[in-house]
């Protein structure tokens, strides 16, 4: 199609310069002419109006009166023609006289059948791409997909099995399920077009046993991908439910490697059953983008939020502090449930004592049944839930380094999402901030359920709240540490999974006794445990055995052993194991006390405080149970038993670069004693000692530089002596 050249605007040339006209020397004139004699009969008024009495200039013929001449060159775009030929479809300039460019030239359409297409989707006269699956004397059988094939008759076939071929549909015989094919001689360019099955989307929630054998199309998020020794199993979730799609190419080989966790995908396949569960034998899985994917994502997010909402938020007991904490506990339960339904793994970190372990086990018992129900893989509870103890009552750098390394490795190797980190019986203090900050760099969601003193509370918030997403702590609502992390975690676990309420009902009582909690809530939790047949002595023995076993488990979670000690599986084994461990526990504690008590220095200070000091480096067994922290606790308990709980007693067990402190509640009540405040003051007064530590108001630790131990310990003793009522 011809049109005016754009470059020269249809002129055929371009002006590249100008030069002075040599005919008129640039004046633009060649002569003057006397016109007066030619208009003798014209009246005076007309002469004046048209200036006929003056001589008139005559323009130069060469430059047309301009005084300069244009220098031109032929337009290279149209070769001086002023016209160009362009494609009728897209307007691209063509060098020849054809009407269309190579891209817009009419191409023959060759269809590639989608795996879900059937014979009814074929059209007589259309051309399809197929693969030869059988060769006979009378012709070849051509497979267009796994469900549709036909016969192309030929006298002397020179094709081989596996050859790709273009065929044209000659005739369809639906009654006999036969397709007659003929060779398609393609001349020139052609275009391959994928012919998809026009299937309406089926919500996963509508796929039941009644739909077995039917071909369905689902759209959802790939929340998990597991490679088995046979097929690849994709866990697909939409706004209605979750199902599994099996895809197979070769045994143990990952199918659709371009599809990753978190992608919105379309699955077409036949509804089947595997191990009693609905499973889709997929014919195709494709990643979706654009509006359909965006809408699917929106529906899924809204549905997960709704599904993750805790059904039952009732508390085990009535308490003003717990009632105030209920919204935060509900938010924590929602976050944990959402992580399960969203296909994220959950990493639980807890303090390695009776309170922390009860907290971690309660969460474990709540989450694992949900994972088993949701996941096709029997190993899901191991892949998507991890419980790990921490020796320190705070989130250490050593712990976060391990957690981040494993999380990033799982994301890189297995396509998993980054986990939800749940910190139990730690995570609230200033010592946690560096580790929390490190995890937050990777945008990891963090839930903290703790009862340690978090520092100054301003408008219901503390310093660590900047680095955590949800923070449950009694101090945030005016409470204190006497409601244990184990009790708080059981309340949250019950919201996560109400069905495990009776199973974990006794755990808050164990946590309360193990953490020496003294409060109305602690007493009520102990009474709840009594309804399951556990006396105070039983709970004390179990808590002691947990502490004893935790020392030897170190960084292992000891799931099976801990379950037995807590009475969560075989009760006969529980009784035998607790009896055996408790005997050894008493023996080890007695041995330690025989060495420690004779070397304990006690002094009643002028303010009435009974101050006990023990050098555990010299007068206690090392590298065995009980550790220095527990040794301090047992020595302190011995002094309390001797002098009474109503007395203000403080016990300090120290080593080369650390100190462990225990105090009776009477010290706090009479003097307002708060160990954390003393640690902060010492750190300010002796900066060169690099003092760190803290914990509860009446129990915690102190760390410092070994060379300044005398100065630090003397300063601590001075702070105790300076306490006033």
Shape: flat
Biggest sheet, spatial arrangement of strands: 25-26-27-28-30-29
Count helical runs: 18
Q: Give average pLDDT, whole number.
A: 89
- Estimated structural class: alpha/beta
Instruction: Please report which band the strand proportion falls in: under 5%, 5-15%, 15-25%, 25-35%, 35-45% or over 45%.
Output: 25-35%
What is the rounded Rg?
43 Å
Report, as a whole number of angstroms, the end-to-end distance. Answer: 103 Å
Q: Roughly how much helix do the residues carry, as a percent range?
A: 25-40%
- Find the count of extended strands (DSSP E, 2+ residues): 30
| Major pleated sheet | 6 strands, mixed
CATH architecture assignment of the largest domain = Alpha-Beta Complex
* Tally of structural domains: 5
Task: Write up this protein.
The radius of gyration is 43 Å and the shape is flat. β25 (601-604) and β26 (610-615) form a beta hairpin. It has five domains: 2-94, no CATH class; 108-195, OB fold (Dihydrolipoamide Acetyltransferase, E2P), CATH 2.40.50; 204-307, OB fold (Dihydrolipoamide Acetyltransferase, E2P); 327-531, Alpha-Beta Complex (inorganic pyrophosphatase (n-terminal core)); 600-721, Diaminopimelate Epimerase, Chain A, domain 1. It has a six-stranded mixed β-sheet, sandwiched between helices. The chain has a five-stranded mixed beta barrel with strand order 9-10-11-13-12. A five-stranded mixed β-barrel has the order 15-16-17-19-18. The protein is an alpha/beta fold. The longest helix has 26 residues, at 571-596. Helix content is 32%, strand content 26%. The mean pLDDT is 89. The protein is built from 18 helices and 30 strands.
């Amino acid at each position: 199609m011809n049109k005016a050249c754009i470059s020269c605007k249809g002129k055929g040339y371009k002006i590249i310069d100008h030069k002075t006209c040599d005919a008129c020397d640039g004046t633009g004139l060649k002569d003057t002419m006397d016109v007066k004699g030619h208009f003798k009969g014209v009246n005076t008024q007309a002469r004046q109006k048209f200036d006929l009495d003056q001589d008139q200039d005559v323009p130069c013929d060469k430059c047309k009166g301009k005084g300069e001449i244009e220098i031109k060159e032929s337009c290279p775009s149209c070769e001086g023609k002023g016209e160009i030929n362009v494609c009728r479809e897209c307007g691209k300039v063509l060098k020849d006289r054809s009407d269309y460019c190579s891209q817009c030239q009419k191409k023959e359409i060759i269809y590639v059948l989608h795996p879900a297409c059937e014979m009814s989707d074929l059209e007589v006269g259309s051309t399809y791409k197929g693969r030869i699956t059988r060769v006979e004397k009378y012709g070849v059988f051509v497979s267009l997909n796994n469900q549709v094939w036909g016969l192309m008759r030929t006298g002397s076939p020179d094709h081989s099995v596996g050859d790709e071929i273009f065929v044209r549909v000659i005739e369809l015989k639906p009654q006999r399920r036969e397709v007659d094919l003929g060779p398609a001689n393609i001349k020139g360019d052609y275009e391959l077009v994928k012919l998809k099955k026009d299937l309406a989307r089926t919500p996963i929630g509508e796929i039941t046993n009644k739909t077995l054998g039917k071909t369905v199309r689902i759209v959802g998020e790939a929340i998990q991908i597991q490679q088995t020794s046979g097929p690849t199993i994709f866990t697909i979730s939409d706004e209605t439910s979750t199902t599994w799609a099996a895809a197979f190419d070769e045994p143990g080989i990952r199918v659709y490697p371009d599809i990753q966790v978190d992608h919105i995908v379309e699955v077409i396949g036949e509804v089947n059953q595997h191990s009693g569960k609905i499973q889709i034998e997929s014919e195709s899985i494709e990643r979706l983008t654009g509006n359909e994917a965006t809408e699917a994502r929106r529906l899924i997010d809204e549905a997960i939020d709704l599904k993750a909402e805790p059904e039952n938020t009732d508390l085990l007991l009535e308490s003003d502090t717990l009632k105030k904490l209920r919204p935060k506990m509900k938010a924590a339960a929602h976050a944990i449930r959402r992580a399960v339904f969203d296909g994220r793994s959950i990493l639980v970190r807890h303090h390695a004592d009776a309170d922390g372990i009860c907290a971690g086990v309660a969460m474990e018992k709540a989450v694992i049944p949900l994972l088993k129900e949701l996941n096709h893989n029997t190993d899901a509870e191991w892949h998507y839930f991890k419980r790990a103890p921490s020796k320190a009552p705070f989130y250490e750098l050593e712990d976060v380094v391990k957690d981040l390394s494993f999380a990033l490795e799982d994301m890189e190797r297995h396509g998993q999402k980054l986990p939800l980190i749940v910190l139990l019986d730690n995570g609230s203090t200033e010592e946690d901030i560096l580790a929390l900050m490190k995890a937050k760099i990777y945008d990891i969601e963090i839930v903290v359920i703790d009862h340690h003193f978090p520092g100054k509370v301003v408008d219901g918030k503390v310093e660590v709240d900047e680095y955590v997403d949800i923070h449950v702590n009694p101090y945030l609502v005016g409470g204190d540490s006497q409601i244990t992390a184990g009790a708080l975690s059981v309340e949250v676990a019950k919201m996560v999974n109400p069905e495990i309420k009776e199973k974990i009902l006794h755990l808050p009582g164990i946590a309360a006794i193990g953490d020496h909690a003294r409060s109305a809530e602690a007493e009520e939790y102990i009474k709840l445990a009594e309804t399951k047949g556990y006396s105070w002595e039983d709970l004390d023995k179990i808590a002691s055995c947990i502490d004893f076993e935790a020392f030897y488990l170190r960084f292992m979670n000891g799931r099976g052993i801990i379950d037995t000690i807590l009475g969560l599986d075989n009760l006969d084994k529980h009784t035998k194991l607790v009896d055996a461990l408790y005997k050894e526990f008493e023996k080890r504690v007695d041995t330690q006390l025989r060495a420690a008590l004779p070397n304990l220095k006690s002094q009643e200070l002028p303010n009435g405080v009974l101050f006990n000091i023990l050098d555990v480096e010299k007068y206690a067994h090392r590298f065995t149970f009980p550790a220095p922290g527990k040794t301090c606790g047992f020595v302190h308990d011995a002094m309390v038993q001797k002098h009474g709980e109503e007395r203000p007693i403080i016990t300090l067990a120290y080593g080369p670069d650390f100190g462990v402190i225990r105090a009776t509640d009477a010290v706090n009540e009479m003097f307002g004693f708060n160990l954390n405040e003393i640690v902060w003051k010492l750190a300010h007064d002796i900066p060169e000692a690099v003092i760190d530590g803290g914990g509860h108001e009446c129990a915690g630790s102190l760390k410092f530089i070994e060379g300044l131990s005398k100065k630090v310990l003397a300063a601590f003793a001075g702070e105790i002596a300076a306490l006033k009522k």
